[in-house]
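Quick one, probably user error.
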């Protein structure tokens, strides 16, 4: 289910805006753009629900891991204590319990990391889809104005010159389409650069977070204050 959601979102993010504009101009209608916006908004809502669910599960798994990891460390100390006191049978029992708890801690850690990675994927997809939605909504406003201008030109031409002037009217619409197409090509290139910068920024944040957690674990091991 999560994979299919991310696949749908990926398709929406990579949607060809130029194609949508061309279809809208051909049909003289905003229907194709409005349908795309509706699909994006529906999938954004699904993304938010999924991210909340996965994020909650990740926190639960992380907490379970920390609980079992703490218990494993406690048992590890108990084993040493029992051995120093010559309580062999207690040491054996504690060692058996330690093995089980340590295995559970490792499983919870693996699951937590997997869910955290999935959560991050959902957040990344949400950011990119929101950016795409903003871009399309902005283009919709301008495209609608272009279509209104084209309709106005057609109406004026029919009133003033009649059917004989169809070629001139179509030429005017072609000029509008060509102008809009050039602007969209430039916007698409800018969008690609923006997406690249966003990916780099998110990677830097994740790397910084990893380094901070590694240092925190090392300080804890060395009994250094945070």
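Nope, works fine. Designed sequence:
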């Amino acid at each position: 289910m999560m994979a299919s959601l991310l696949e749908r979102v990926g398709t929406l993010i990579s949607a060809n805006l130029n194609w949508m504009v061309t279809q809208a101009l051909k049909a003289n209608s905003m229907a194709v753009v409005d349908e795309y916006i509706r699909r994006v908004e529906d999938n954004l809502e699904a993304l938010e629900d999924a991210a909340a669910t996965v994020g909650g599960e990740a926190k639960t798994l992380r907490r379970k891991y920390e609980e079992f990891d703490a218990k494993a460390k406690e048992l590890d100390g108990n084993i040493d204590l029992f051995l120093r006191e010559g309580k062999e049978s207690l040491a054996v029992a504690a060692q058996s319990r330690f093995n089980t708890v340590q295995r559970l801690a490792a499983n919870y850690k693996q699951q937590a990391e997997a869910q955290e990675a999935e959560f991050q994927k959902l957040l990344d997809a949400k950011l990119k889809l929101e950016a795409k939605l903003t871009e399309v909504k902005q283009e919709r406003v301008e495209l609608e104005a272009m279509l209104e201008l084209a309709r106005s030109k057609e109406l004026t031409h029919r009133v003033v010159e009649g059917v004989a002037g169809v070629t001139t009217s179509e030429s005017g619409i072609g000029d509008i389409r060509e102008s809009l197409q050039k602007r969209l090509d430039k916007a698409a290139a800018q969008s690609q650069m923006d997406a690249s910068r966003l990916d780099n920024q998110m990677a830097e944040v994740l790397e910084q977070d990893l380094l901070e957690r590694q240092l925190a674990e090392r300080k804890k091991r060395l009994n250094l204050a945070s």
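The chain has one domain: 2-221.
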